[in-house]
Specification:
single chain, alpha/beta, 8-stranded mixed β-sheet, 6-stranded parallel β-sheet, 18 helices, 45% helix, binds nicotinamide-adenine-dinucleotide
């Protein structure tokens, strides 16, 4: 089957490469000519474990191609996936301009039956909007619109795509469901559950899922704050809660607040969607408020541990919003680094993958070669993103580089008791 993937970003490139790996002929289209030129030259423009290999393998096999030519890609494909960005507007609602542009292009260029699949995260009602665009602008050809939200996580996107917890397909006709089942047939073989539903429900499943995960994160961050006020250990409380299988241990780690390309924008979009329908989604509103407060509290925590910040040298380890990605959309780490900068601290930064992307935001900082170089001459160290390579640092070597043994560990990577015994002034979150 020929598939056109419009939008070759974190989701589109991973989805395109993985569907090619399933045996489909995939053409990935992007309006960013530099991105497409890089991919055509064999360079994967984002950092995502395993992605380079799967892209190269499927390109070699002739099943994966890259182009900026949307017209011919639409003409030659049965299924057209929309995987473009849906960034937040200032009022929190998602900007659907790119989705609309792709729907209009499909309407203009469709030359027979097409299945138009939304992979982008979009509010309920977007499927109906796409149907309307196709019907009004091209009455000549049959089409089906499908909502197929994506749940992959950056940092483990390829393995998440190949072994998902579930596939959600929202469609209004059996023909489209059949096409989708054929596309995902390798996942049937490994008994992946399929949720086949209507378009509106599929669209809402994505916001409800991300909203719920965000609630869990804000909940544990509030518990952690209570622990700090009351002298309890948030790490132990989270563990004690998470072992209850009704609760589960995932997304129950106290930290500096949630960030990234999805949770902040999807929670505001869910709140906006509710408002548009005359309802206040109170839990989501509270979750966002708690998250804002959690993030803002981190600079006070650092100042309490390190003393007045003006003129001090801060080493910050980790910049991306989570480990194993170079994505710097709304990372708590960069919020903390920016707050340190505003407070007059000198910044030394290190991240295994996200430094190039960060330079535009914090141009005056020193970008270090590794964690120890980052710590050189620092008055205190902030562990902001828990990359694996920061989990087993040589603490004595680190201390030799620094002016003082002060660590603020926003990810609770290190054990407070061990750190204290080793002579560190150590501050975690909720402990
Ligand atoms: P991204 O910014 O990495 O990629 C989007 C790509 O679309 C860009 O390369 C952009 O140039 C391209 N594009 C925009 N308009 C276009 C057009 N008219 N024609 C061709 N290309 C166009 O974004 P992303 O992180 O891949 O997210 C895409 C969607 O998937 C969003 O709705 C997001 O919410 C959703 N999503 C993201 C993740 C994630 O972890 N990143 C996970 C699940 C769902």
């Amino acid at each position: 089957m020929n598939i056109c993937m419009v939008g070759t970003g974190y989701v589109g490139l991973v989805t395109g490469a993985c569907l090619a790996d399933f045996g489909m002929n995939v053409v990935c289209v992007d309006k960013d000519a530099a991105k497409i030129a890089a991919l055509q030259a064999g360079h994967v423009p984002i950092y995502e474990p395993g992605l380079e290999e799967i892209v190269a393998k499927n390109e070699r096999a002739g099943r994966l191609k890259f182009t900026t030519d949307l017209k011919s890609s639409i003409e030659q494909s049965l299924a057209i996936f929309i995987a473009v960005g849906t960034p937040p507007r200032t009022d929190g609602s998602p900007d659907l301009t790119f989705v609309r542009q792709v729907a209009e292009a499909v309407a203009e260029h469709m030359n027979g039956y097409k299945v138009v699949v939304t992979k982008s995260t979009v509010p309920t009602g977007t499927g109906r909007m796409i149907e309307q665009i196709l019907r009004e602008r091209n009455g000549r050809h049959e089409f089906s619109v499908v909502s197929n939200p994506e749940f992959l996580r950056e940092g483990s996107a390829v393995s998440d795509f190949l072994r998902p917890d579930r596939i959600v397909i929202g469609a209004s006709d059996a023909r489209a469901v059949e096409v989708m089942q054929e596309i995902y047939s390798p996942l049937y073989l490994i008994e992946t559950p399929f949720v086949i539903t209507d378009i509106a429900s599929a669209e809402l499943i994505k916001y409800a899922s991300n909203g719920f995960l965000a609630v869990k994160l804000s909940f544990i961050n509030e518990v952690a704050h209570l622990c700090e006020l009351m002298g309890a250990d948030g790490h132990d409380v989270a563990r004690g809660m998470g072992l209850d299988r009704r609760i589960g241990s995932k997304f129950l780690h106290p930290g500096p607040g949630f960030g990234g390309s999805c949770f902040p924008k999807d929670t505001s979009a869910a709140a906006d969607l509710a408002r548009q329908n005359g309802y206040t989604f109170r839990i989501i509103e509270a979750t966002m408020e708690v998250n804002r407060e959690t993030k803002a509290r981190m600079i006070d925590k650092i100042a309490k541990a390190a003393g007045p910040l003006a003129g001090k040298t801060a080493a910050v380890l980790g910049l991306s919003f989570k480990p194993e990605t170079d994505d710097i959309r709304e990372p708590p780490a960069i919020a903390v680094a920016s707050d340190l900068d505003k407070a007059g601290a000198k910044l030394r930064l290190f991240d295994p993958a996200a430094m190039e992307n960060t330079k535009a935001i914090l141009p005056a900082a020193h970008y270090a070669a590794d964690a120890y170089d980052c710590a050189a001459g620092a008055d205190f160290l902030v562990l902001a993103t828990e990359w694996n390579e920061f989990r087993a640092l040589d603490l004595e070597r680190l201390a030799r580089e620094m002016r003082s043994r002060t660590m603020i560990d926003l990810r609770n990577v290190y054990d407070p008791k061990t750190m204290k015994e080793a002579g560190w002034s150590y501050t975690g979150v909720g402990r």
